[in-house]
Amino acid sequence: MAEERKDNIILIGMPGAGKSTLGIVLAKILNYDFIDADLVIQNQCDKTLQKLIDACGPEGFIEVENQILQDIEATKSIIATGGSAVYSEEAMNHLSSIGRVVYLQISFEELVNRLHDLQERGVVLKGGIGMSLRDLYDERKPLYEKYANVTVNVDHLSITAAARKVADALK
Description:
This protein has helices at 19-30, 37-45, 49-70, 89-98, 108-114, 118-121, 133-147, 159-169; strands at residues 8-12, 33-36, 77-80, 99-105, 150-153.
């Protein structure tokens, strides 16, 4: 394996926290490349995230995501992960080895404001379709905190303001 440099920035957080949209703006601010892990998964599997989750179930999807995330090799890139990436310890260990992990933290209230339809977004509900947004938030929050090198609260911020706040936090 080539010499590993930790010059990537990995974004983690709840669905709706802004990982993909903020990631693009952050890449422009820092002059980095941008990789949307969800799109990498969709391209490699030739299915939308929701179709993959429907076909494989939540656990099967997490296995696919884990494998694809472990294979990501990048330099000077912002990598926006799916909200469920933190379920895969191997994937998170790999991502941590190639960059700094930034948790885009939002409050539960902000999450409710931002997310309208979990089913359309391809959100992994480990507890099944009956899992509430509150359950999902409570389950994932400690995982985001566990893997984060840097935590940035992005409540009530525009995408640009949030991206600048992340850039400042990384200095």
